[in-house]
């Protein structure tokens, strides 16, 4: 049996307990009485072949007592297109975000993947934001709201179970985003909802926003994920996100509260599960191919070391909260493309320590800026030189105008 | 098209347009002990040009050097010039600090207005000065008592002989590393009072830092020296109102007949006194200490009477260069009035005041008056 071979290899490789302790009983029954056929298949589980670190060999098993195990690598009728669909059964945002990243970085680059999930009450802040400034950390802690820091830039968002999330992972293709938006729009149509995409990032119904999206690009794949406001607690948003933020009045920053609405108001039968089903069907229809829907849950995937590492990284307190910079100089301003909050120590005309907070989307920019400021002379001339270096070294990665804008302001503020 | 509505807004000083030319021939530096006061210039100076047609040009930092002007330039003939005196210090961490620079900017704009020279954005000029200081930071001695003396100066370069409102001007900021004003402790000076020399008068220019105020004082300085004194104490009118001593503001610590201690300094209201920034700092600190400060027109008689009755305990001048200059004696109408020696000894009011000011200037205590520019 492939599965027992697989788990045997896994055991051998890891020297630990069998892969599926919860499945041990059916396994043993299987071994003991191979002719017994179970009328109802066991819930789908994932089996990860340890011989390959790449998820290329992710397989779906139908565990049935006595039934021969089948390996299904999607039911790909057309050899050109491959699809995969995953649903998370967990509401843990650390698990879900880690899984999304893991699917993106480890997944098969040739496969169109849809991952559906949702998180319990959480505030998800951008990579470079100041947790203490962006949200009511103490209140969140006492009320059981998670603080999650993602690896991408941008601003803070509040999520709860009324907020469904879709993630499309596709081979790099200019058509991906319009097609994905079309998938979502058609799924909503199923509920009689007339939605349409605006620009790249939003989906609206009668000019009210029901979905916001973000994108990530790797060498061969694109990730497009977005929220669908099913039944979000709008009041909670104001409760946990810092209400003093002047940015709520400023333009172009991620956390700006657009005019939004919950989809449940338009269709009472719409909930995470029914919406997921509709999205899945729409996804299949768009690609002209079907596959099995795979359930992912905390227990299964905690045994994958890379995933465990990703999740631990997201859960790490230092990562999430960051340390209080406690530096002597503090320079802060807002640009169209994001807010910048620089804390630094300088001595004898040289910058010695830096911490940059920002909700700008370009992660590379903030990283290069923070690194480049250390050792930079504390003078207009020094900052001007840094600007030239950033433009030169970050060619292609950084927006030249943004670099110039920031360096001009910084030089003037010293 | 309405012409009157078409007012062109000319550019002000913009630090963001600052252009720096590094010197290719650095000047030789001497030992800090050899510095003296105002004899050495640093490598770079700030230069900004202005014209009535174009407003303020981009500020430039250039190597210190001679300035070439049209021989008809108004500054040569009509003394249309104003200047400032301020200092930057290096604290014990090696960071550069300025002392209340915004006050000098305000005052320079007042001086400029009086001479019909152009006004400017003081904050932007301070940004340029910060950059200038950082460029020449190696010139600033890191030793208490030593500093970088800054000399902003603005003058009219209007290139014709007719006396008109300024049509072209230049603003420079020069830097001179300086040693302590007194090489060996605080030596009190003797002031010579001669009503013949009138430094400033109501309706004049005594309250602005205009170069022309100082030209006539060379003669009174020489006369004071001839009389065996260090500086002239300027008084005017029948009451002999006390104004300034040399180039400093004056303070007198006098015990009233009822026994209360009062710090006298002439007030600014008649426009004959330069509003010193050290003067202002002394007044503010004295008030913080609970000292009674009497800021009123000061007739010399009050001082003379106090001296005769041994009630004048201390007298000192204030200025950026010396900070506090103890006065040991006055000479008036041939008579000498000596002040008590413990007036400028350790523990005296002025020594405590001097120590406090230096603490602030050198960043030994955190204080809003000291701007750290790193």
Description of the molecule:
Chain B: The modification N6-(pyridoxal phosphate)lysine is found at residue 209. Chain B: Keywords: Amino-acid biosynthesis, Aminotransferase, Branched-chain amino acid biosynthesis, Pyridoxal phosphate, Transferase. Chain B: InterPro entries: Aminotrans_IV, Aminotrans_IV_CS, Aminotransferase-like, B_amino_transII, BCAT-like_C, BCAT-like_N, BCAT_family. Chain B: Its cofactor is pyridoxal 5'-phosphate. Chain B: One of its GO terms (biological process) is branched-chain amino acid biosynthetic process. Chain A: It holds the Pfam family LplA-B_cat. The complex is a heterodimer of chains A (414) and B (374). Chain A is of the alpha+beta class and 414 residues long. Chain A folds into 2 domains: 4-32 and 47-321, BirA Bifunctional Protein, domain 2, CATH 3.30.930; 329-413, CO dehydrogenase flavoprotein, C-terminal domain (Enolase-like, domain 1, 2-Layer Sandwich). Helix content of chain A is 34%, strand content 24%. Chain A is built from 14 helices and 17 strands. In chain A, the strands form 4 sheets. Chain A has an 8-stranded mixed sheet with strand order 10-11-12-13-9-5-4-14, sandwiched between helices. Chain A has a 3-stranded antiparallel sheet with strand order 1-2-3, with helices on one face. Chain A has a 3-stranded mixed sheet with strand order 7-6-8. In chain A, α3 (93-106) links the parallel β4 and β5. In chain A, α6 (176-189) packs across α8. Chain A is globular, with a radius of gyration of 24 Å. Chain A starts with a helix and ends with a helix. By secondary structure, chain B is α+β, with helices and mostly antiparallel strands. Chain B has 2 domains: 15-178, D-amino Acid Aminotransferase, Chain A, domain 1 (2-Layer Sandwich), CATH 3.30.470; 189-361, D-amino Acid Aminotransferase, subunit A, domain 2 (D-amino Acid Aminotransferase, Chain A, domain 2, Alpha-Beta Barrel). Chain B is built from 8 helices and 19 strands. In chain B, the strands form 2 sheets. In chain B, strands 1, 2, 3, 4, 5, 6, 7, 8, 9 and 19 form a 10-stranded mixed sheet that branches. A 6-stranded mixed barrel of chain B has the order 10-11-12-13-16-17, surrounded by 4 helices. In chain B, β16 and β17 (323-332) form a beta hairpin. In chain B, α2 (101-114) packs across α3. Chain B is globular and about 65 Å long. Chains A and B meet through α14 of A and α3 of B.
